[in-house]
């Protein structure tokens, strides 16, 4: 009888196995798919490294780098080529570079904003006046759109907040909770009133902390072999320290041994269960032991998304591609939400003679046949950057219900989930449904769940 069972073999479940093994346990991992890694998937296509899911992680959150160091992969870490970082936003069908000095949707420099054709004069004036807002002691919970609108106006929602967050959550700023996804800005608002003032103060503080002006390093990091190098490294280093069952967990019940996990094939008994799958699946699993907990978990909504990688001969895209790529605001959008020029963003991805465009498509794309998706995206690329060549390869990855949406009330919901789960000794919940959907957040959550043992 295994004493520790982990359900779900994405990065959260694999990190949980890693930390359990480090603590001297031998976990049993139950994953329904043959492939491990969840949404992390890296393919080699015609000499190009193609990420089907995440392509990097935020360097500012340490959990991913900590795990990478433990795995001995540090020398394989590469950063985004930030010296070539130019991201454009589509406005009236044209690509407009994002003005310098923006931190997410917060402007911190006057001149680039004044010169940018991205915003009307009304918005520019509102952005300037925002600096004079006074602190707000206890602001009510608002959506991202409400917060940004209050500070910078509707154009900042349409042309900054929406496209920036669509890439991270595949979500709608009118629904996402600012407290849950823009916590830093909500704290700034309480202290400074103005988000611009708060961001400038934060930068000044960071500069004080690294007095020789040492740069913080690239914003995004990844591994030379792609994100799947991380999940593969965990698997390679654990073969004799964990067991694996390719099976689907159906229900968790209390038993004399702690928990009985019913799967499609068998019943497994364990003292500790780490539920590391999306909250929708977690809800079904825990329903037999706690109806209320199951209800709360089922209330975490998930969005679907699609990535479409298009490989071209470099000669066909020459002169059409600069910077990291572009974002397509929903108000302008047809099919694409964003497009990354892979070669510019990261080295070790695309050979000199090739180019890869990685396009993100929202939830409506998930059920559309592949040929139609490719046709629509190629038509949009023709309109936006004048690209008329046919791709030499295409690769579609569909992610059904993979991106958790932190709506209004999310933090209170998670606090209640944690409280209810704590009443069931040996039951642990981790994953992207709770305290952040990024890879470092998932790893941090898994590590904390193991540490709580
Ligand atoms: C397209 C896309 C791009 C992204 N880009 C980035 C990025 O660049 N940077 C970043 O930091 N984050 C990114 N994210 C978010 C991040 O990748 C995910 O939040 C994170 O990888 C989720 O990991 P997880 O292990 O919690 O869940 P998942 O990867 O979803 O894994 C859950 C696993 O549980 C299994 N499972 C579910 N139910 C059961 C069951 N009943 N029994 C057994 N197994 C089950 C599933 O098969 C799956 O393998 C992206 C996400 C997507 C979808």
Describe, in plain words, how this protein is organized in 3D.
There is one protein chain. With 453 residues, this protein is an alpha+beta fold. It has three domains: 4-39 and 227-300 and 407-451, FAD/NAD(P)-binding domain, CATH 3.50.50; 98-209, protoporphyrinogen ix oxidase, domain 3 (Orthogonal Bundle); 302-404, Protoporphyrinogen oxidase, mitochondrial, domain 2 (Polyamine Oxidase, Chain A, domain 2, Alpha-Beta Complex). It is built from 17 helices and 22 strands. The protein has a seven-stranded mixed β-sheet with strand order 8-7-18-19-20-17-21, with helices on both faces. The two termini are 18 Å apart. Residues 7-13, 30-33, 38-40, 53-57, 248-249, 276-278, 281, 305, 307, 399, 402-403, 431-432, 437-439, 442 line the site of flavin-adenine dinucleotide.
What features would you highlight for this structure?
453 residues; alpha+beta; FAD/NAD(P)-binding domain; protoporphyrinogen ix oxidase, domain 3; Polyamine Oxidase, Chain A, domain 2; 3 domains; 7-stranded mixed sheet; 17 helices; binds flavin-adenine dinucleotide
What's this, in brief?
37% of the residues lie in helices and 24% in strands. It is α+β, with helices and mostly antiparallel strands and 453 residues long.
Record the SSE blueprint:
Elements: E1 4-7, H1 11-22, E2 28-31, E3 42-45, E4 48-51, E5 57-58, H2 62-70, E6 77-79, E7 87-91, E8 94-97, E9 102-103, E10 106-107, H3 110-115, H4 121-129, H5 144-152, H6 154-169, H7 178-181, H8 183-192, H9 195-209, E11 220-223, H10 228-237, E12 243-246, E13 249-255, E14 258-263, E15 267-270, E16 272-275, H11 279-286, H12 291-298, E17 301-313, H13 314-317, E18 325-327, E19 336-341, H14 342-345, E20 354-361, H15 370-385, E21 393-405, H16 410-422, E22 427-429, H17 439-451
Parallel strand pairs: 1-2, 1-16, 2-12, 7-18, 16-22
Antiparallel strand pairs: 3-4, 5-11, 6-11, 7-8, 9-10, 13-14, 14-15, 17-20, 17-21, 18-19, 19-20
Helix pairs in contact: 1-17, 2-17, 5-6, 8-9, 11-12, 12-16
This protein binds flavin-adenine dinucleotide.
Flavin-adenine dinucleotide binds at residues 7-13, 30-33, 38-40, 53-57, 248-249, 276-278, 281, 305, 307, 399, 402-403, 431-432, 437-439, 442.
